Amino acid sequence: MKITVKDLIYMRSEFDLELTSLTDETGFGKEIIFADINRPGLCLAGAFEHFAHDRIQIFGKGESSYFNNLSSDVRKKVMKEFFSFDVFCCVFSHGVRPPSDFIETAIEKKVPVLVSPLSTADLIDILTRKIRNSLLPVVNVHGTLVDVFGFGVLLLGKSGIGKSETALELIERGHRLIADDIVEIKKLDENTIAGTGSHLLRHHIEIRGLGILNIRDIYGIRSVRNRKKIELIVSLEEWNYMADYDRSGIDENFYEIIGVKVPHVLLPVRPGRNIPIIVETAALNQRLKKMGVHSARELDAKIQNWMRMEKQ
Fold first, then answer.
1. Are the CB atoms for 280 and 148 separated by under 8 Å?
2. Of the CATH numbers 3.40.50.970, 3.30.360.10, 3.40.50.1220, 3.40.50.300, which one belongs to the domain with range 138-299?
3. Residue 312 and residue 307: Cα distance in Å, rounded?
């Protein structure tokens, strides 16, 4: 996902960022690549050896006070060295405005200069969280995401297989809808992905014959949630009598999304099978596995032990 300096300025309503530009819009289209923030304290003292110029530069009270108290000649020398690098963007906290010559030089070098009334700590925290969240890998998947017993279960399968109907039955049984049709999946870390619905389709579900339903309006606020970590993937497919479906559950299967492997169950669909109840059971069984209880393997161990005893 792409995020620019201009995006930061328009985040104020969502994140109370309250950024105000002190320069024109030149440089606002710069794309942010790093979530890390840099405080140029040592650079202002002349130590530019490891200057992380390609990050947002935060000027806190300390940096602002030190810089403003420099003599005119020293300040010009520091600014000349500072702006000799391709500085990305400068943000001043606590509502402190930099000297006019700093702003003039920034405009000349096409470096955006912003000011925020927030404290340095709050500003860094909000910027880091938002930028890191925006830079996370994202993919859109055709499926339905449901919170089942606190487990995020992603239902996959071709169109018309019954994903939405399964989700509707699960909602009727007290579980919660996260997204239907288009699931936006974001990689949170090396082992975790989470899903959400698009802003326009959130809390809606499509049922053939009924059309589009607003689950929140029909079942109430407790029937939906906005985001959930995905811990189990269930693929629905039409029953194939020639297929060799898993009947023991001893082996673990995984489905990979954005480089993250998630436990995977393949469920064949045919008349007479209660798929919602099977999905519930799969979620409960996966919870047991996370707790170290693997029913199929425990039974297999008992059988193996019994066979050894019989041979004696």
1. yes
2. 3.40.50.300
3. 9
Residue pointed to by tokens 């189990």: 232
Q: Catalytic residues, which ones?
A: 142, 163, 181, 247
| C-alpha Rg value of the chain to the nearest Å | 27
Cβ neighbours of 123 (radius 10 Å) = 24
Domain ranges of the chain: 5-135, 138-299
Cβ atoms within 10 Å, residue 285: 17
List the structure tokens of 199. 């802003």
The pTM (predicted TM-score) of the whole model is 0.71
Question: In a structure prediction context, what are the per-residue pLDDT tens digits for the chain, which is 312 residues long?
Answer: 678 888 877 765 555 566 778 888 878 888 888 888 999 988 888 889 889 999 999 999 999 999 888 888 888 899 999 999 999 999 999 989 888 889 889 999 999 998 888 899 988 998 888 888 888 888 999 999 999 999 999 999 999 899 999 999 999 999 999 999 999 999 988 899 999 998 888 899 999 889 999 999 999 999 999 999 999 999 999 998 888 888 888 888 999 999 999 999 999 999 889 999 999 999 999 999 989 898 888 888 888 888 888 876
- CA-closest candidate to residue 60, choices 17, 131, 124, 127: 124
**Which pairs with CB-CB distance under 8 Å and at least 24 residues apart come from 262-266?**
262/154, 262/193, 262/230, 262/231, 262/232, 262/233, 263/231, 263/232, 263/233, 263/289, 264/232, 264/233, 264/234, 264/235, 265/232, 265/233, 265/234, 265/235, 266/235, 266/237
The CATH class for the domain spanning 5-135 reads alpha beta
- SS3 sequence of 148-191: ECCEEEEEECCCCCCHHHHHHHHHHCCCEEEEEEEEEEEEEECC
Could you tell me how far CA 193 lies from the centroid of its own chain? 7
